[in-house]
Each structure stands twice: as structure tokens, then as C-alpha cells.
Design brief:
about 0% helix, single chain, about 55% strand
């Protein structure tokens, strides 16, 4: 059984920063990859960033150079550092864990960026 708990969302002004955390119920090395997705009103859920078991990373083009995904293995935690936030980043952000062939999801945390 897998649980993912997100935290760190909030309201910030454009240009500001937020740090999202996702705490898993066990070692994150059980997962092939972990990542962050987001869903804005009226839009499909999209991949924001992903980190594999081997620590390879991928980012959506819209966040490259602004967001960084990392992990704290001792705390079973994946982190998304978001800098230079823009209004279009406003969305609910969901933590994802992939443990083939299964996907697991957190409850989501709201990020709102004002102009």
C-alpha cells in the first residue's frame, strides 16, 4: 500500500518561489520514477517534472530553467523547487509515483500565482 502526501502549496506573487514536498510511505527507491503533475482549470493534467530511480530528470518545456526536482532519500521525500513563478503556473500540483505497472497519486496541493 502506497501513500503520497504533498505539502508546500500556497499563494505567491509572480516572480516568487515555492517549494513543494511529497512524502512517500516508504523508500522512494521502490519506484521506477517519481514526478509532479499539475492541472489548471479547464486544462488537461500535464507532467511538470520527473526523476527516475537512477536520478535522471525530465522537465516540461514550460518550466525548464525555473523548476528543479530533487529527492531526500532519508526522508522518503521528493521536492519540487519552483522559482520565477508565473500566473500560468497556477494549478493543483499532484505527486506521482510509478512502480511498474502502477501509478500512485497524492491528494494534490494548490499553487496560485498572482500577477
Amino acid at each position: 500500500q502506497v501513500q503520497l502526501v504533498e505539502s508546500g502549496g500556497g499563494l505567491v506573487q509572480a516572480g516568487g518561489s515555492l517549494r513543494l514536498s511529497c512524502v512517500a510511505s516508504g523508500t522512494i527507491f521502490r519506484f521506477n520514477a517519481m514526478g509532479w503533475y499539475r492541472q489548471a482549470p479547464g486544462k488537461q493534467r500535464e507532467l511538470v517534472a520527473r526523476i527516475t530511480r537512477g536520478a535522471d530528470t525530465n522537465y516540461a518545456d514550460s518550466v525548464k530553467g525555473r523548476f528543479t526536482i530533487s529527492r531526500d532519500n532519508a526522508k522518503n521525500t521528493v521536492i519540487l523547487q519552483m522559482n520565477s513563478l508565473k500566473p500560468f503556473d497556477t494549478a493543483v500540483y499532484y505527486c506521482n509515483a510509478y512502480d511498474a505497472p502502477f501509478n500512485y497519486w497524492g491528494q494534490g496541493t494548490q499553487v496560485t500565482v498572482s500577477s
